[in-house]
Fold these 2 entries.
Entry 1:
Amino acid sequence: MIHRYHHNLSYLQFPHLSEYAEIRHGIFTRQGGFSKGCYQGLNVGMGSGDDIDHVLRNRAAISGCMEHSELVFADQTHGTTIINLSECGPSGSRLSGDALITDTPGKSLVIQTADCQAVLIYDPVRKAAANIHSGWRGSIQNIIGLTVQAMIKEFNCDPKNLLTGIGPSLGPCCAEFIHYRSEIPKAFWAYKNHMDCFDFWTLSKDQLAEAGIPENHIVSSNLCTRCRTDLFFSYRKEKTTGRFAAVIGIT
Ligand SMILES: [Zn+2]
């Protein structure tokens, strides 16, 4: 990952995505920002319990870093609803879903997480982008595969052209599921180690590959949020905490 700085903010970029000048993207660390206490830093989560004014100022700072583009958030529900922003109504309307897709320049798609994965996708041929929220519920419902299908249907994308990045999230070191027998279908138990920890990074890579994306187009940050609370918010580690932002948009 490439570490970049903008005023007192810091964000990470995927090297293969950073080669395209027509997109802006970044995984914003919690460093900088206005939030205090449990939410220390750049918290973008409205529903996290943090001071709303601080969250709004944090979001504005990110917008400033992303060429003052409009940030588009959705109420994330751990479901499989995919929102095509190219078909959405007026700016500012409330959206609910776990993946955002667009081929329209100008807007920045934001996924907010604290252990779940944000998966960024860009198609440099069709000039279309996606940002996916994939927690363990999203993983077992394969929201990644469903989003690739939506990009094929809506934007005529060829999966062979898609470039993807898996953001910082709960790693195989920390994704312990002591109730996995009741929570996670047996088909996914192959991703579990002897400590009852699941490797959702590899699962996501497999889902992207199954969707037709070449393996050399799939990059995982391999950063565990629970291990790196200096950089990220982690619900598992901190319980009361903020959400960090993963952003991608077409300029
Ligand atoms: Zn870890």
Note: The helical segments are 15-18, 52-65, 136-140, 143-155, 180-183, 200-210, 235-238.
Entry 2:
Amino acid sequence: MPSIPLVSANSSPTDAIAALERDGCVVVTDVLAGSARQAIARELGPHLEKADIKTSLNEKYAADGGPADFYPGNTKRITALAAKSEAFRALVTHPLMLSACDAILSPNCASYQVHATSALVVGPGATVQMLHREEDSFQFFKVPRPNLVLASMWAITDFTAANGGTHLVPGSHRWPGDRVAREHEVAAAAMPAGSVLLWMGGTLHGAGANVSDNWRFGVFLSYSLGWLRQEENQYVDTPLELARTMPGQLRDLLGYKMHSALGFFDPGPRP
Ligand SMILES: O=C(O)CCC(=O)C(=O)O
């Protein structure tokens, strides 16, 4: 089985970025303190309690012509995390993420933005998710695509090969579109709580099956080039009234910022 490079938060971000560019994925340990994890879990808890444990979405998607194994059951998914959790917002502007985005995305844009957010809580009995690429929404670019998206998964609980730790195919960010991953090319992200897994938008990945008795709690956060359509509609999920209360850097990253001529708006009469 291939392995996912592991670096400590104490080393320079350039080590993590070099591994990310080389292998398409990297785990950085000790990034998120216990207090921050608890705050995220506390703030998202009431939303997760109300969330469906998706059991039948695969059937629905297959009936609609979608992939048959994108939404394995026994998984809770909630989105709009920037609106739901103040502790989550600190992840969006985390220096490690900004360094990685500067290296991976900035060469292709004037500024990058949040692409999508979600809490992905994989329960016992969940089956394996199909491998996919974060950049698959951008079908008009042929694989391997230019760097469009950078993704991350923050371990709120431990991730193991048994509890649904994310599957990744190291090196697949450079593969041609018709190359299919074989079983021995897939690695499971085993990482202690407080770690963050980063992967390139072109890296094949998917949630693992959970054959343990524990829930795997991860927080997903991705970024894209500022001239692309965001995967999650941040203007709906973080409406202007809420965005106005946020620090400028966070608000800009959520998309309340122009990219060259894109995204102008009528600010209304000046006071
Ligand atoms: O939960 C995971 O580990 C990965 C989930 C994922 O890639 C997705 O739902 O698109």
Note: The pocket of 2-oxoglutaric acid is lined by residues 120, 129, 153, 166, 205-207, 218 (CB under 6 Å).
